[in-house]
Amino acid sequence: MIRPIIAYGDPVLRKEGEEIDENYPDLKLLLEDMFETMYNSQGVGLAAPQIGLAIRLFIVDASPFAEDEPELEGFKRVFINPIIIEETGKEWKFEEGCLSIPGIREDVSRKPDIIVEYYNEKFELVEEKLSGLAARVVQHEYDHIEGVLFTDKINPLKKQLIKKKLNDIAKGNIKVSYRMKFPLVKGKH
């Protein structure tokens, strides 16, 4: 089932997610819904807070980047209760966007290499070293479960320049090709 994406301004996007265990209700169905929702909105990652759940869970499928980055072919993962153990390397800028903040793309600086530990969909513990765009997608989604948005990482002047756009998103004054739930609009989906 395709779920509405929670728009910028909703408090759930600012909450630190709670850990879950393998008995989380309907986890398999939730993961199916998240992948369907992400693909429907042409995303490469989706965190549970973006569908209204303040839990430590996100999914990624960065294979759309595989044309430019062949190592991303088949990079599809479920991250449950992840912890980024290490971030290393010289920060690099790359333009990021977010399904919860449509129409806004800005350069964000992140370190290129990470080591992340997480449970996969079978609740097997995995430790993985990621680099480049794979690391960036994971860092972006990880921020979501920490209550952080990519707009928090842009320079203050740029943030000032997009303030009106952010307010418009919160009020639902935007057009998107996927279902959204806006915090400042009653009943509009």
TrEMBL record:
<dbReference type="GO" id="GO:0046872">
    <property type="term" value="F:metal ion binding"/>
</dbReference>
<dbReference type="GO" id="GO:0006412">
    <property type="term" value="P:translation"/>
</dbReference>
<dbReference type="InterPro" id="IPR036821">
    <property type="entry name" value="Peptide_deformylase_sf"/>
</dbReference>
<feature type="binding site">
    <location>
        <position position="98"/>
    </location>
    <ligand>
        <name>Fe cation</name>
    </ligand>
</feature>
<keyword id="KW-0648">Protein biosynthesis</keyword>
<keyword id="KW-0408">Iron</keyword>
<keyword id="KW-0378">Hydrolase</keyword>
<feature type="binding site">
    <location>
        <position position="144"/>
    </location>
    <ligand>
        <name>Fe cation</name>
    </ligand>
</feature>
<dbReference type="InterPro" id="IPR023635">
    <property type="entry name" value="Peptide_deformylase"/>
</dbReference>
<feature type="binding site">
    <location>
        <position position="140"/>
    </location>
    <ligand>
        <name>Fe cation</name>
    </ligand>
</feature>
<feature type="active site">
    <location>
        <position position="141"/>
    </location>
</feature>
<protein>
    <recommendedName>
        <fullName>Peptide deformylase</fullName>
        <ecNumber>3.5.1.88</ecNumber>
    </recommendedName>
</protein>
<keyword id="KW-0479">Metal-binding</keyword>
<dbReference type="Pfam" id="PF01327">
    <property type="entry name" value="Pep_deformylase"/>
</dbReference>
<dbReference type="GO" id="GO:0042586">
    <property type="term" value="F:peptide deformylase activity"/>
</dbReference>
<comment type="function">
    <text>Removes the formyl group from the N-terminal Met of newly synthesized proteins. Requires at least a dipeptide for an efficient rate of reaction. N-terminal L-methionine is a prerequisite for activity but the enzyme has broad specificity at other positions.</text>
</comment>
<comment type="similarity">
    <text>Belongs to the polypeptide deformylase family.</text>
</comment>
